[in-house]
Amino acid sequence: MFSLLLLLSILLSNYNVYGKLINDFNQLEINSCDLFKGNWVYDDDYPLYNSSICPFIEKQFDCLKNGRVDKDYLKYRWQPKECNLPRFDATEFQKKLKGKQMMFVGDSISLNQWQSLTCMLHAADPQAKYISKRIGGTSIFTFPKYNTSYLMYRNAFLVDIKTENNGARVLELDSLSSAAQWKEMDVLIFDSWHWWLHTGRKQPWDFVQDVNSTYKDAPRLTLYEKALNTWAKRVDSEVDTTKTKIFFQGISPDHDNKFKQVSRCNATIEEYNRSS
Ligand SMILES: *[C@@H]1O[C@H](CO)[C@@H](O)[C@H](O)[C@H]1NC(C)=O
Ligand SMILES: *[C@@H]1O[C@H](CO)[C@@H](O)[C@H](O)[C@H]1NC(C)=O
Ligand SMILES: *[C@@H]1O[C@H](CO)[C@@H](O)[C@H](O)[C@H]1NC(C)=O
Ligand SMILES: *[C@@H]1O[C@H](CO)[C@@H](O)[C@H](O)[C@H]1NC(C)=O
């Protein structure tokens, strides 16, 4: 799962966020294998954890408990076209990260990946003690046996939203106050997009602030680009990239209810296919 994260941020050196990224993204290869060319294949050895017995999974991510009836979706893994990914080995993973801290920052996709990873690690060594705590907005999951920490900071926009005295919520495109905690991390994994599309009741801000100007709204891709520029600059100023590995998971997919007639947790792939 770890190796599926898209490596983009390191390519952001001139702050020309989109455009440049897409070019480089297609050429990104590791050991001359393009990890992003491939498809999802059925694998009988999956899943790597059972959500029913992961004691700390949040309800929203426990599809089994939420009544989903089909199970096939649990059995897929990514298969690059030109090479094989090593099998996930939790012990090896923990040993490699000994004494290190890995932090996810982003929206529910990041939260989901953080939860999956900690469930996978717990499932592989259920006797190993774990400590789960929350400090401010940061959730910290630690395995003392391996001295590894997996952190999650939920921030759907990456940049700040501040509430003014009059109650107005301001999306501050040039401010990213949580960046200070990145310094300590050995691995940083970011994602953002989905929330930029929300309007109306689901939009959690009233105004946009961009350096010296405040306005009501603008094309969302423009706002997103400005925020990613702020983010990229902060990565450069806060993070020692010779020590810390940085991943940007691309954009989180949209997930509104396109399939109204089957918008329930227990719908099956077949029902979705029939309805689309
Ligand atoms: C997950 O665990 C539950 C409870 O122990 C069990 O009933 C179920 O069969 C397990 N599912 C899988 C896919 O292993
Ligand atoms: C455990 O890891 C932390 C960094 O996360 C490090 O500061 C500390 O020295 C390590 N402790 C031991 C006992 O290795
Ligand atoms: C913002 O305002 C400050 C203080 O007036 C000024 O120094 C700065 O150049 C302005 N920045 C931009 C991007 O307009
Ligand atoms: C799926 O859930 C709905 C309620 O959301 C329920 O009415 C229906 O009976 C369930 N179907 C199955 C096959 O469990």
Automatic annotation (TrEMBL):
Subcellular location: Membrane
Membrane-protein topology: Single-pass membrane protein
Domain Trichome birefringence-like C-terminal: 85-273
Signal peptide boundaries: 1-19
GO cellular component, one term: membrane
Annotated keywords: Membrane, Signal, Signal-anchor, Transmembrane, Transmembrane helix
InterPro entries: TBL (IPR029962), TBL_C (IPR026057), TBL_N (IPR025846)
Coiled coil start-end: none
Domain Trichome birefringence-like N-terminal per the UniProt entry, residue ranges: 32-84
Family indicated by similarity: Belongs to the PC-esterase family. TBL subfamily.
Protein name (database record): Trichome birefringence-like N-terminal domain-containing protein
Source organism of this protein record: Solanum stoloniferum
